[in-house]
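Homework help thread (please don't just give me the answer)

Our assignment gives two proteins as sequence + structure token strings and asks us to describe the second one. The first is just a warm-up. Here they are:
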Amino acid sequence: MDVGWVYTIQESMHAYAANVYTSVTEELSKAEDRRFIAVEQEFFRLWWDTVASDSHKRQVRQLVKEGRLEFIIGGQVMHDEAVTDLEDEILQMTEGHGFLYETFGVRPQFSWHVDPFGASATTPVLFALAGFNAHLISRIDYDLKDTLQTKKKLQFVWRGSPSLKERQQIFTHTMDQFSYCTPSYLPFSKSSGFYWNGVALFPDPPKNGVYPNMSLPVTKETVHAYAKTMVENIKQRAAWFRTNHVLWPWGCDKQFYNSSVQFNNMDPLINYINQNSKEFGVTAQYATLSEYFQAIHQSNLVWEVRGSEDFLPYSTEPYQAWTGFYTSRNVLKGVARQASSQLHAAEVLFTRYRISFPDGPVAKDWALDKLRALRWAVSEVQHHDGITGTESPKVGDMYLQHLTQAMMAVKELLAAIFLLPHNLDIPSILGSHYHRKGVHQALEQHVIIYNPLAWNITTIINTTVAFPAAVVFDDDGQPVPAQIQRSALSDVTYDLFIMVNLGGLQHRKYVIKFFQKPCSGRSKCAWTYEAKAVVFERRRVRDWTKTGRRLLPVLNECYKLMFDQDTNLLHSITYLHEKRRVKMTQDFWEYHANGYIDAGPISDNYIFSTKGLAEQAYKAVEMEIIPGKIVTEIRQYFYREESDKDYAFSINTRVPECLGSKVQCHRLEQTYTLGPLPINTEVILRISSSVKNNRTLYTDNNGYQMMKRPYRNFTDNTVARNYFPMVRAAYIEDELSRLVLVSDRAHGVSSQASGQLEVMLHRRLWNNLPWNLGYNLTLNDSSVVQPTLWMMLGLKSATSKLYQREAIELQHRPVVMLIDQPQKPWLEKEPRGSSRVRSVELPPNLHLLSLSIPGWNYSSNHNVHLSDIHSGKDLHSEPDYNRVLLRIMHIFEEGEDPELSKPVTINLKDVLRGIGEVRVLEERSLTGTWDISSLQRWKWKTADNVDNKSKRCWTCGDEAFTVTISPKEIRTFFVHFSSKNLY
């Protein structure tokens, strides 16, 4: 059941989803041989909390206990695999698994990833880490599926990580050409296949229970025809697999909402086949997915191994490359990542607060409710018709509403933790001052800046202010280097850049003093540079007959960027350490799509299909450069027509200029503005360079690992079929240089010519395909978008050390919270000491993936937990605030870097000392539901006969709490801190 797509969650619950669980529960209880698998937890949890009666709940508990109702995947949603981030995939699984384990004591062990549009190699790794025994996929390239079917290779053992290899391998079943639905064709009837439910009705289910297109009932007259059709399909499928066990999925999207009708027709049909098994050569039975995979496992066959290759991109036909959704609804993709980042920051901050100030005024129940709402919203949008942008406009609005409302609530939580006193004996930041009277004073504004990463950082943050001059002081009263200039997007505001030094998981307070007039040359503003723009005249493309004659350099410690005054475009970048120059231009191009199906293939929410090659999207360019001492900013404006007043696109490049500081000079920050677009336009940023990459591209799988993407030629649709998803990073390289992009949201990327790297930034489409019009899926997106990319250039060895961390730092930028509006200065009643909290720092190759208080109230001992459930103990009544969920990830691949790719040994008690005293440490599975010592996943025989026994190192050192983390490992722990501050 789609958590979104065409209809909102509320509409779907009312029309059919609630009825699925109500009627299935009742029908399963009527016959012991009946089975049902349930996938997404969001609909089930809504039903459980708001619809299910006590009787239904008792029935469900019994059905789950008996294994007749089985939860598969168990996440909040069936997440997309192309444009979702690793952290969000883990979150939504953890949310669903925590509920299932707390409520029923069950832990999903099989996946049903049948509907995501292509399959990532990261997903099987995560499922293995969560304790799954088998994985199931469906949507892969049509031509590849044909080949695998013919060769009986739809089942294999997948080793999704080149570093973890056999340690996290998983058996994988690929659905055949009929995918996850029962065949819809009946040779003896015009009604749809085996769907006695008919078709779900919106907005209201029919009162008489009669739905459109209900199949002919199974009767004495029809049962043989039904059985013959079913058996023929089973035998057709059997020819594509190696065992005599055939998985025949009975159902499809929006089915079983009237399951009494379904079961009352399925029962006699199965009985008839079994009664005539000699004639048909087939027996049939209801089964859960675990029963099917157990039968396959017991066959004891030797399986082929698939390495870390993924199944992206995905095409269903030659002109149906599902690569457009990598970019669709750019705004939603950006907000979803911002919400994820804010959630991470708030989880870590609340966890620290809870450990350090358990009696503080921030109410724990109030705080957890706000965190849970944002967890829910971020989990929900990971649905494969959510963050993909493939939903209808009203569903897209629903996702945005849920995200923004939850984000606003979590901002209240952040403000409360930052501003309220930690105990009643200590005055708050806001309560310990009064305004000075008398003499005129400059206005002040107070800002808290918080680093949510467990790395010490020196970086530049930007805030928009209303005054032309300012000076900044830190919480020690020391002046801070800063820069102020007119804003790029407004003539009445200013951009204030502040250089900040923050320890890991640390926040600091800064004071900004404002002045009504510029104060260059005056001592009070000596630490703030007032930057002025140099404007270059507009250059028309048709005048670009002679270029490269007047080059203007912009330098920092890492690069020399050359801009061509004849074109106002970037000309080249030299990375100074090696004195190596790479020719490079950046500009905007666009693909045009058909609007009418009679004119040829169309693009839509899902599909990218262009009428031809990309065309230049502008006819003139303006440029202004703002030289600075903190950053130098280059603003380029692209105009569709030579005389246009308003620009169509812009590139805003910020080059860090902090000489001698710890600011990373290799990071070129770029923000783009584009939209609204003309209809049937798909706009790309094209980077053309002298890098000889032979059209080979590297893109990330969900921010976890990089995939090599060699260019492939196809008979049709070659452009679209060479687009790939970039969630966090992409790069091109040759023997000498590597050009890296890291992104704040997902995009489609490609290398259509040697040296080129193009990023699709925005799409606006319309077509007259009846299916698209009927469901409002044409993607008429008229929004203005402002995505951000960070760019790096250098030797492969140098960039290998940087890009993983850069991608994480872009995802988790410092939180900037303005405490107040500019006002008269505060006068402290008494001097305040520095309120800076202790920093928490991990080695540079380890990332603090999670530090949170989940709140699930179950015993870490599985047997004790089951006893609690069976005794009827109410585990939902009081959250567990003392259990902390910790995840740490090694961000490097094996062999990627001589030093950073080595295993890392840390003492977690020492690492976490800045938070509190660690008392107990328990290693758990990825989603926390398994004690790692009791997790015994199935072993599958493989052609290479490699043992998949885990090699994880727990207490390898002499001290307790010592952990060795190997490349690409994600280690999950429950941590209990000393009880001296906790109750």
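The one we have to describe:
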Amino acid sequence: MEGQLCADLKISVKKTPGANPPSFIALLKVYRELLVGRIRNTQCLIDNLVKNDYFSNEDAEIVVQFPTQADKVRKILDLVQSKGEEVSEYFIRVLQKVTDAYYELQPWLEEIGYEPSENISSKPVVNTDPVSRYCQKLRYELGRDSKFVMSYAQREEMLLEEIYSKSIMELVSFTNESLGEVCQLEALFDDALGLINEDGETIYVFGDAGIGKSILLQKIQSLWARKELDIGAKFFFRFPCRMFSCFKEDEAICLKDLLFKYNCYPDQDPAEVFHHILQFPHTVLFTFDGFDEIYSNFDLSSVPEICSPNEPIHPLVLLVSLLRGKLLKGSKKILTARTGTEIQRNIIRKKVLLRGFSSNNLKEYTAMFFKDEGQRMLVLNHLEANPNLCSLCSVPLFCWIIFKCYEHFHSMFDSHELPDCSVTLTDVFLLMIEVHLNRSLKTSLVKNNTRSQAEMFKSRKETLLALGKMAYKGMENSFFIFEQEEVSSAKISEEDLQLGFLRTVKGYSGYNNQSTYEFLHLTLQSFFTAFFLVIEEKVGAKELLQFFNECSHTEIAQPICLRILWLKKQLAGEDPFRNNEHFHFTNLFLCGLLSRSKQKLFRHLVLPAVIKRKRKMLIAYLGKSMKSHLRGLTRSRLPNYNQIQVQPNFVWMLRCLYETQSEKVGKLAAKHMRANYIKLTYCNAYSADCSAISFVLHHFQKHLALELDNNNINDYGVKELLPCFSKLVVIRLSVNQITDHGVRILYEELSKYQIVTYLGLYNNQITDVGAKYVAKLIEECSSLEYVKMWGNQVGDEGAKAFAEALRNHPRLTNVSLAFNGITTEGGKSIAEAMRHNNSVKIFWLTKNEMDDEAAMSFAEMLKVNKKLAHLWLIQNQITAKGVKYLSEALKENTAIKEVCLNGNLISQEEAKAFENEERIICF
């Protein structure tokens, strides 16, 4: 009936030539109850009717007196109709223009075909809808808050647009296998890319400390505020997860207060705004930053899974309900956490791994940071000459720190050279502290400060000790937020706060509305904790080593950790190197600060005997723990090799050993491995970790196999492995973002020693340029037996280079050039070269672009080559014609065991013609 009325009234609303004007009064009468039921905001209507003198103030007062929204709408309709056609049409015009407030009436307006008259079109319509106003306020406040990034010298703010640079964002499966890179931020919300669970609602972004998780969320916030993120989100609520640790056990708030009080409060009608959010949850975007930083005694098992959006309950329950989709189901959510924090699969929609800067990203960031071309080239040249620094720069936070140090030394000494060529993460953080303290000094306009690092630290010992004491107390309890009272009790002065190691935290209300603070970054709190453990003379063995114990004894950490069934941290029993990152960084810095090279610095801060005693305790503990750790690793016996399969925790062990810079400890680690094949796959190892790997492995006396597949090594990591290449007979670096530059390093080093038998480089970023270096290595290195290049972009030029290299190679048995964009031209070159090769047994050319002409060339090759046993031409562009060439060639070749042609342009009916030749596999 209602649809029929709409159809009838369409004719009367649209004005036709010669017809009487449509009756808007009649339209409002017919649809009176529909309008009463769907108009939820009356204030916007009243404001516009008054503004255009259609309503008097008395009319507005009469409407407001009615108790319910429905009665107010009925009174407005009565008044509008009584004032004639023009006012009735203007009423409909407001409904049409203010879409945010009257979204439920937009289909009706389209159905009746309303088009405003010229007179009404000239009348202004102002959107005073509280939902629209709130969205505008949200965008303004979030835009303002995301515009700047506070530097580590807190007095200095930098524009986000001037320091944000893209890094590698990789979509991964539940088992962390790559599903492709994220090129545009909108792709995070595009279900066509990387969707692994359509029932999940949370985009889970993870990566190591300092890799750029928080600044990524700030970038997304900034784009949304500027309406440059087109994902259909009208509302944006961001929460640092640390705030949920600040609530007491008995605190309770409702969802509305969580959204509005801790983000942005509506100026008008909060109830209407909240109702809109509940009605349209798909228009809401949440970001929850640092889920692994929640620590609370609150027991979630004591509350029901489902909670009401209106009833007060503990904030942690609201957080979990939002992530599970029990509240605001359909809303978009991004959750960040450090690597090693696992979330139950059923809440995850996508997993995104942040891998840091690629070599190109680093160049872009350098250009952004150093505007002057001369300065930029000096920095790039110095980084190129110092692979240790270059590797650290793949982590954005550490890159920023290093660049600020470069900047400081240029301003002080007109040089971009970092003193003593810093090589460890501890060196970099010490340098940052020194630069930071230097900048706080009052210096002469004509004379630069010439204090040494030791003198600088000695002059501010009490400040550093106070910061360290507070960091230590927080780390003991996994607290990362500090009240003003805690800051004061630690004797941290206002002058100390101005140094910028601590920053105020927005969105928290401390006691008596005093400020709350956090360290600039979690790694900085870890550093100051380790610093305190070194310079506080009263610290004994128990306190010194307690964070190693925190990592090894799960019962210590459990009582203070958020007990959420689907939040699981990777545990490994008594393993002192399990993943618990804020403790791991504390241990790493402790190893670095107690290294022999730092004794010169610390003798100015603490008695040498104290440092010697603590170093002795640490080295003894590391030796004992390392033996225990290595004994527990999985071992396998392979032909010619004793293989050791390590876990991600092994990387933390190597990092700690490297920070000590103790050759004795490095030799001890190499000795206790008792293996000559080190399998270090899926360990989230970064390029900087290759320094630690080399630090231990270069102590091996004999030949060695090293498998580093599926990590984040990149070209800088390859350079860090230089000390190992003289021993490596197996080198596997697949899925590691290695480019042609990295391949050139491999060629230059491996060709010197000519002992390598296995080179694995599949699924990297190698083009024909890099392929030519691999080909030169094959030509020059007769020891090579396996070359795996699947999933690169070598193309036809690379294929031709490979063809020449393998033509007369004496030992090469397995070659993979699958998925490399090789067309018929490249295929013919390979086929021709294989006519002369007598060593290759298996050749993979799957997923290329070769057609029947290439198949004919391979057929001719098979008539001559009687050594090849397996030829894989799966998923090319070969038809039945090409298969026939190959089938005919097999009549002259009894050595070949299989020619795999699955996924080519052959139907099952056509394949029946080759059923008698079992070595031809089409399906």
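TA reply:
I won't write it for you, but here's a hint about the kind of observation we're looking for: The CA atoms of residues 139 and 225 lie 4 Å apart.
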